């Protein structure tokens, strides 16, 4: 019986030993290779003002360090370091150490918005056998993207957006047939768009914007029907919109081809893109009319056709609500602001500069002005006063109405508290320049009929020139 009385103690001892083994296993540090690789990376960082790598200390478990994920035993599987675009202290300066090649279980590397990471393409990624996701965005890496990138056949995402890479887009990218996203925008890439991209049949995002790519847009989109985001804007592309883009109609939500040298007519088939959220064809050389089929784009929220040579008539759209519209600087004669714009329940940006509008602004009664950020009605034949319109806005940042026939007393105008930019030049305003303009960032009230002493501002004389009798700094002193 005495031996039986000892049994609970034996069970307790066994349980305690198991617990200790469990806790010891949980407290085990990450793999020595991963730790040394990460610490060598840290040693290549010359500035870390926000302390992003402060927790990276020798002889501590690197799986607990900021930005580190370990999902396979004690091995590092993801490295995630991110700054914030609007926070200038969350940066890292330095180079990316090749010692990260020791992280052989890494499946994702994310260096986002760190701003000052520099050096060439990090070739060590080519030696990481499990790598699926490469996001090295908004840094200062430069040089060429190596042709050997084609060897990384497991890659799902390859994003070098917002760096300073130059040279051509490697043809070997055609071998990355598992790619879901290819994002190389915001670099200095040259040459043509590789035809081999047509092999990337499961691609959902192709963004090559903000480079110096030339030639025509390849006619290969019948192979890329999963695309929902195509952005080729801000390049040097020429020629017409290829017919095969029509194959993207069922899924494409974002089509951005602005700031190129594309020409010809806007194709009718774009009216079949019923899922389209954003269409940007601005700053090109498109001619002719906007297709009548655009009336089918009932879900579009952002439409930018500005800076082309498009002519009347503009089709009557059937959108339920437009958020951003820019038709400026074409050859339109709209006379009135379109009814489908006036009735929109939510709109942030309206730009109809030089669109042949002839209304009296006091008579325009939009359904909603509360959310407006920007309104540009410059270079039209608009009369009246913006009093009523500006009194109905709570978030307006910019109001531009230069080159019209507006007639009102400027010093009685109520400025929204959010207003930063105001251009009312070349109108028929009278009265004085109010003190409220001193809170603006940009101002132009030149070439009106204003009079009196100017308030103290930071604006140059060009903001006030050409008025009847304004005086005081930066203009000549008042007599």
TrEMBL record:
Natural source organism: Cinchona calisaya
Keyword Lyase: no
Gene3D superfamilies reported in the protein's UniProt record: Ribonuclease Inhibitor (3.80.10.10)
GO biological process: defense response; response to other organism
Keywords, comma-separated and alphabetical: Cell membrane, Leucine-rich repeat, Membrane, Repeat, Signal, Transmembrane, Transmembrane helix
Record-given protein name: Leucine-rich repeat-containing N-terminal plant-type domain-containing protein
Subcellular location: Cell membrane
Family, per entry: Belongs to the polygalacturonase-inhibiting protein family.
Domain Leucine-rich repeat-containing N-terminal plant-type: 33-70
One cellular-component annotation, GO: plasma membrane
Signal peptide range: 1-27
Entries under InterPro entries matching the protein: Leu-rich_rpt, Leu-rich_rpt_typical-subtyp, LRR_dom_sf, LRR_N_plant-typ, PGIP
